[in-house]
Specification:
The protein is built from 21 helices and 19 strands. By secondary structure, the chain is an alpha/beta fold. The chain folds into 6 domains: 153 residues, MutS, DNA mismatch repair protein, Chain A, domain 3 (Orthogonal Bundle), CATH 1.10.1420; 99 residues, MutS, DNA mismatch repair protein, Chain A, domain 3 (Orthogonal Bundle); 216 residues, P-loop containing nucleotide triphosphate hydrolases (Rossmann fold, 3-Layer(aba) Sandwich); 75 residues; 45 residues; 41 residues. Helix 3 crosses helix 11, helix 4 packs across helix 11 and helix 9 runs antiparallel to helix 10.
């Protein structure tokens, strides 16, 4: 099993993350367990731990909130249960009962909602569920933390005697109080309490008149406190009973301790289980403060952090109401090592620490503040060299210390290693240190390791440009203000902006110019070229963004215009169809009107029918001719419509059938006697006509243009003739 070195955790300030997380723990054991968290590399164990944190975090946002898991530590009680003939006190049993109930509540909850909390239920299902512990304790100890009267027959008997004796003591004292008060030997306060015993407040001059036990006097000595003789005798009996009660309670507690001793292993499991739950809870609450999520864990060698935040920096800036800039970085087999260059105070070290700390947090079961589409793999080793690291104790210079560190890197570095080195190669002669750093980097590259380094050395930038699986990157700066934008740009090295930054900070131009002359012309030109390229890149990116924005706006406008045109065209077509249909209906109406007028004037049915048929033939000839293909399509449509109609008809028929059955059950409505002139209509018809004539069981109804003959029983009254 690989472990992450302690120095890496110190470099990345992982201890601060643990301290912040520990503040969310609810128990002392949970707090200690959080502070003791270390990263691990076992994939299955890690995935389960991450899933538990994710499930607990999700519970804050849904209705199935996980029950409270608070408990008081019972480590001492568990240890004392091993001692022969030892018994636990009432307070210990209260803690044991509490821890058993909290565990049982969680076991029931996780079993009930196992579909929501799969991973949490997997650890809960391994714990034994039993109500025996709390129920047995409840049989002995009441909710006020006292031994119940019926805990044993002997205790019940003793307490009945105590109750009776207390009554007798009270009556005895009141009798003595009344007697000596009548004799006038008591002070104004009459009585007091000393050592939980009621005493008479007797004036000092009359103390010999009161027989009993002297229990004290006032500060001035004017009052003496005496327990009456009769009461004193009863109190002795009371003390004997109290002693018997205590002995019986000890006996009961010993029996209860002996019973609980059998459950000692289960109590240990309960405490471990609740401690684990508390640790998961603390991680979930910490994730909530960071808006952290669970990224995709991939078995491929791929590290893709999108919109990643440094947790400590994010929380610190959040308190100050300041903005924190996110970082996006990707490492994969085709781009394993990134060399970041650029001026100081541009965010290079923060980028290194963000990558390292998020990786360590993930491998410790923490959710991390990144975009949901981020991907992460696991590393067996995370090696860091960040900061000065000068060792005063070992009398090592910065460079000596870094060389020792590099030696460790060379021993451990392999294909499952992530290395993070800040200011790689510094601390020695630039040319010699740069050459050694280049050699180290080549070794890391050959061993297929993943890593990110920051540097100002030109030879390392050139090496990154030459090797196919290594790339340059720079922290972006505003070319006008020379303020950092905290954006990482891949593909080209960054200028150190040495002279530009010096000039911005008020260094006289004459001194800067003098310094430039002291530097080799080639290096100045190289740095100038990089600076110019970076400025051009900034301009190009701004232009690209502007063009992309304009293009997107045009696309949106074009899309809106097209949609508007389509809507207008559809409306015009529908209006045209409506207009044509209306014109046709007007023409048909006018033709019908002419036919009706002709029939009214001439009263010739044959002529009317002939004209009507001619009209229908003319209208039919106007209909567009249907081709074979169109007819097939129409037939298909008709078939579909027919099916739908048949379904609807079937539904209507069923409704009618039900209505008829209901009607049969109801008493028949009284039939109206129809008279000539009544407004009537056929059953299940909407056409209303006037009843003109009745012959036997036949009726003649006038509908305006024509008269219809039908059975009288088929008609129903609409309106009675006036």
């Amino acid at each position: 099993m690989h472990t992450i070195h302690q120095k890496t955790l110190q470099d990345l300030e992982f201890e601060t993350v643990l301290q912040q997380t520990a503040t969310h723990a609810q128990t002392t054991l949970g707090t200690a367990a959080v502070l003791d968290i270390t990263p691990h590399t076992h994939e299955l164990i890690l995935k389960e731990e991450l899933q538990r944190t994710f499930e607990f975090s999700s519970s804050f946002e849904n209705e199935n909130r996980i029950p409270n898991h608070f408990f008081e530590e019972i480590t001492t009680e568990i240890e004392r249960l091993k001692i022969e003939d030892y018994f636990l006190e009432i307070e210990s049993f209260k803690k044991i009962k509490s821890i058993a109930i909290a565990s049982n509540d969680l076991l029931i909850f996780f079993k009930k909602f196992k579909d929501y909390y799969t991973s949490l239920n997997s650890i809960a299902s391994q714990i034994e569920f039993t109500k025996t512990i709390p129920s047995t304790i409840d049989n002995v100890i009441n909710k006020f933390g006292e031994i119940k009267d019926d805990a044993s027959l002997e205790l019940s008997s003793i307490r009945r005697q105590l109750k009776g004796l207390n009554g007798r003591i009270n009556a005895s004292f009141l009798s003595a109080l009344a007697h000596f008060n009548g004799l006038g030997v008591l002070d104004d306060i009459k009585e007091s309490v000393i050592d939980n015993r009621r005493v008479l407040a007797v004036t000092a001059m009359h103390k010999r008149k009161v027989k009993g036990a002297f229990l004290g006097s006032s500060k001035t000595g004017s009052i003496v406190f005496i327990e009456p003789q009769a009461t004193q005798q009863l109190n002795r009996e009371l003390q004997d009973l109290l002693h018997q009660e205590r002995e019986e309670i000890v006996k009961i507690l010993k029996e209860l301790t002996l019973f609980i001793k059998d459950y000692r292993p289960l109590l240990m499991e309960y405490q471990c289980f609740l401690t684990h739950i508390d640790v998961v809870y603390a991680k979930a609450k910490y994730a909530q403060t960071l808006h952290a999520i669970l990224p995709e864990i991939t078995t491929e060698r791929n590290l893709y952090l999108r919109d990643a935040f440094h947790p400590l920096l994010y929380l610190n800036n959040k308190k100050k109401h300041e903005k924190t800039f996110s970082q996006t970085i990707e490492l994969d087999p085709n781009n394993r090592i990134i060399v970041i260059s650029g001026p100081n105070a541009g965010g290079k070290s923060i980028t290194l620490k963000t990558i390292g700390l998020l990786q360590v947090m993930l491998q410790s079961g923490f959710l991390i503040p990144v975009h949901p589409r981020s991907k992460m793999c696991l590393f067996d080793q995370i090696l860091t060299d960040i900061g000065d690291n000068q060792s005063i104790e070992n009398q090592l210079s910065t460079y000596s210390y870094r060389l020792k560190n590099m030696n460790k890197f060379l021993k451990k570095c392999n294909a499952k290693t992530l290395f993070l080195i800040d200011e790689f190669g510094t601390g020695s002669d630039p040319e010699l240190g740069g050459a050694l750093a280049e050699t180290f980097l080549e070794v890391f590259y050959e061993r297929q390791a993943f890593g990110v380094i920051t540097t100002h050395y030109a030879n390392l930038k050139i090496l990154a440009d030459e090797l196919p699986e290594m790339t340059n990157a720079n922290m972006m700066f505003d070319n006008r203000t020379l303020e950092p934008t905290f954006q990482l740009a891949l593909g080209q090295p960054g200028s150190s902006f040495t002279f530009e930054v010096a000039q911005k900070n008020g260094i006289p131009y004459s001194l800067i110019n003098k310094a430039k002359k002291k530097v080799e012309r080639g290096k100045v030109r190289f740095d100038k070229t990089i600076a110019r390229l970076q400025k051009e890149r900034n301009k190009l990116e701004k232009t690209t963004q502007s063009l992309s924005s304009s293009e997107e706006k045009k696309r949106l406008e074009t899309y809106k215009l097209e949609k508007t045109n389509i809507r207008i065209q559809e409306k015009l077509e529908s209006y045209q169809q409506l207009y044509d249909a209306n014109q046709r209906m007007i023409a048909i109406g006018e033709k019908f009107h002419k036919l009706a007028t002709g029939y009214t004037n001439q009263n010739q049915k044959k002529a009317l029918i002939g004209d009507f048929l001619k009209f229908l033939e003319v209208e039919k000839s106007k209909q567009p001719k249907i081709t074979k293909k169109v007819k097939i399509k129409q037939d298909k449509k008709v078939a579909i419509v027919k099916k739908e109609v048949e379904k609807k008809v079937e539904v209507i028929r069923k409704k009618k059938k039900i209505a008829k059955e209901k009607a049969k059950l109801q008493p028949p409505k009284p039939k109206h006697i129809l008279k000539i002139g009544d407004k009537v209509r056929l059953h299940d018809s909407r056409a209303i006509g006037t009843l003109e004539k009745i012959e036997k069981k036949k009726a003649f109804v006038n509908y305006g243009f024509f008269t219809s003959e039908c059975k009288l029983a088929q008609l129903e009254l609409v309106q009675r003739v006036k």
